[in-house]
Amino acid sequence: MSICELHCQRDYMKKHIIIAACIIGGVFLLSVVGHISTRVYLRTHATRWWTVPVESRGGEFQIVMYRYPRLRDIPESFGFGQGFVQLQEKASGKVLAQKRADDLAPLTAFRWSDTNVIVYHVPGTSDMFADWDLPK
Hints:
Blueprint: H1 3-44, E1 47-51, E2 61-67, H2 74-77, E3 83-89, E4 95-101, E5 109-112, E6 116-120, E7 128-133
């Protein structure tokens, strides 16, 4: 092979590497944009599913559960779960803590204290979903 042929072959390989890198980068970028778009859509279209009737000390705080819209099994398939749970100040609605929930239905047991609130996955067990500190 001549020097010219080696130079052309090296340029040819560089072009293919650059094209492959662009394709991989494009796929990664599309997946990130799709994930973010889906998360924003689900959050903005989530509906208040249940406000826990048991309140904290003096009724200052509340736990609110939000359910994502049903789009067949899309939210669950992509790891978004069924919705999310928030600890809020009751008067202002300010969100103090939140967590994504794969399944909202079993989250029916709560324990309030002066310093924190615990949400359990299954009533009567020690399987905690969240343990949130309350502001003083």
